[in-house]
Amino acid sequence: MNAPDFKPDPTLFPFESKWFESSVGRIHYIDEGSGTPIILFHGQPTWSFLYRKIVERLADGFRCIAPDYPGFGLSVRPAEYQYTPAEHATVIGELVDALELDGFLIMGQDWGGPIGLSIAGDRSEQVKGLVLGNTWFWPVSLSARIFSTIMSTGFMQHQIVEKNFFVEKIMPFAMKKKLTEDEFDHYRKAQPTPELRTGLGEFPRQLTRSESFLENLEKRVLSQLASKPTLLTWGMGDMAFRPRQYIPQLRMRMPQAEVVELRRAKHYIQEDAPDEIAGAIRGKFG
Predict the structure, then answer these.
(1) What is the pLDDT of residues 156-199, one digit of tens each?
(2) Which of 9, 62, 129, 252 is a good FRET partner for 217, with 20 to 30 A between their CA atoms?
(3) Which residues constitute the domain of residue 44?
């Protein structure tokens, strides 16, 4: 089992690293602040560092918990792990149970939506509300299937795993804010070698390989979570999760959802619009 030998810069990530011994190995997370618990679920190719600015803005009124899935951030890379969203939900669900949270919120973006909602669905009586941004929880569209097929080719898998394609090419394109070199290094150094990037290569493939997981998840969300107070914080410049396509689909499934349009944000809303997101969370759940 491997994990990066990397310590975040405390001026950029001023939080205490915590560790949980899961069934597959050591999981990294942060647990900052006090008040209503909110669990923050990252997507591809990020880790808990993505939520640093939101944690700083919410920690005086919320208990902010941000885990790294196996294969991401500072968490373990288990030898026999398949890096599927179902596995991530099982492992991080162990952490949620160990923390004995009640009345908690979840926030999910990108793959963090399906993973967080799966965990919440299994613990629906403990869930206070949902925050979803630039995500989904049903079987993917044709365009996403095409993307998955392209990203699953040998050439693109080589680019993702060997060249760190998602960090080096996708992330700069998919956010409006220009990160400093030190900030970008925190995404690079959490996945520093090809051997530690297996999870990054698997997520695009799972768009189609996890169809049964997503079919089941949609049913569970509609039956167990659709009545929960829900906030949609949406990056309106996202070319992957286009607002005209995804917001109506979410509102059809969750008609009570409140929508906050993040006009100056693309896909990585946590980097582009932390003030607006934190303010919206405070306004709805504070």
Answers:
(1) 999 999 999 999 999 999 999 999 999 999 999 999 999 999 99
(2) 62
(3) 18-285
60 catalytically annotated: no
The total domain count for the chain is: 1
Residue from 31, 42, 88, 238 carrying the catalytic annotation: 238
Q: Is 6 contained in some domain? A: no
Domain contains 12: no
- Catalytic residue check, 275: no
Q: Which residues of 208-233 are buried (b: 16+ CB within 10 A; e: fewer)?
A: bebeebbeebbebbeebbeebbbbbb
Say if residue 1's pLDDT is above 90. no
Pairing of strands 230-235, 127-133: parallel
pTM: 0.97
User: Long-range CB contacts (< 8 A, 24+ apart) of 115-119?
Assistant: 115/41, 115/69, 115/85, 115/88, 115/89, 116/39, 116/41, 117/217, 117/220, 117/221, 117/225, 118/85, 118/86, 118/89, 118/93, 118/213, 118/217, 118/220, 119/39, 119/89, 119/92, 119/93
Residue 98: C-alpha distances to residues 3, 112, 122 (Å): 22, 20, 14
User: Domain of 213: which CATH number?
Assistant: 3.40.50.1820
- Distance between CA atoms of residues 87 and 90, nearest Å: 5
**pLDDT confidence tier of residue 152, bands split at 50, 70 and 90:** very high
* CA dist list (Å): 23 to 95, 112, 123, 155: 10, 20, 19, 33
User: What CA–CA distance (Å, rounded) separates 192 from 189?
Assistant: 5
The catalytically annotated residue of 68, 110, 186, 272 is 110
Examine residue 159 and state whether it is found in any structural domain, yes or no: yes
* Residue 2 within a domain: no
Active site residue 238: yes
Q: Which residues contact 177 (CB under 8 A, 6 or more apart)?
A: 271, 272
